[in-house]
Amino acid sequence: MSAAAAALRLDVMTVRPYTRQLLMVLGAMGVLVVIGPPAVGLMAGAVFAAVVAAYPFAVEDKNDLGTLHASLPVQRGTLVLARYVLSLLTYLVATVAATVLAVAWSTTGDAVVTAGELGLVATAGFVTYALLVGIQLPVYYAVGYTRGRLLGYVPIMLLSAGGAALGASGEVDLGGLVEPAERHPGLVVGLAVLGGATALVLSALASWRLDRRRTARVSAGARQAG
To answer: Which regions span the lipid bilayer (predicted)?
Structure first.
């Protein structure tokens, strides 16, 4: 097993005891698909991934796993990369689940989800995910989950509140949004994916530097205390 795979497995095992809570969050995201325009609910994948991304940091702070991570024969950059990979995999799984639910729910009601709407919202969802996680993870690497959770969750709460309000109002005209994008779909999707990927790469680099700085600060404090 490669170091990156081992680091990813460690994070998965870290959050595994919280599966029930995560399933409850996923269920809440599913409600968003049902109560509003089905395609809008696909944004729930971005929100769910951002919530899950915080769990390894919360568990690490709660159980003081920083010492364990520091003693592992794995480079810090690999551990940082594993956190981003876990969040991306979570986003993909949640988005696929939300897409299936949105399509299934649309067949039982009047709100028909078109391929164009799904494509537009999926693209917007990826950008949203990249921005949420891109902001959230560097904060946790800089100051830890306990001190940074409020700042890390602010974008998630704003997005959730906005999505719930739009879904409840029923005034989201996805058709009007899709029509301009359909004129140049390749360009729109390409630019969005490139922008989201760039945000994630820059965020990962910032997290790597912040993690090194925080680790060095903690190590220096431990030496002084000793």
So the answer is: 42-59, 80-106, 118-143, 150-168, 188-208
pLDDT given at position 166:
56
pLDDT tops 90 at residue 35: no
Does the model's pTM come out above 0.90?
A: no
Question: Rounded to an integer, what distance in angstroms lies between the CA atom of residue 72 and that of residue 153?
Answer: 29
pLDDT tens-digit readout, 90-114 = 888 888 887 887 777 777 766 666 7
In this structure, what are the phi and psi dihedrals at residue 107, rounded to the nearest 5 degrees?
A: -75, -15
**Cα gap 172→40, rounded to integer Å:** 8
C-alpha–C-alpha distance, residues 83 and 60, integer Å: 12
Cβ atoms of 98 and 41 closer than 8 Å: yes
Rounded to an integer, what distance in angstroms lies between the CA atom of residue 118 and that of residue 127?
A: 14
> Rounded to an integer, what distance in angstroms lies between the CA atom of residue 5 and that of residue 93?
18
CA distance 69 to 187: 42
Provide the token pair at 124.
């917007």
d(CA 7, CA 11): 6
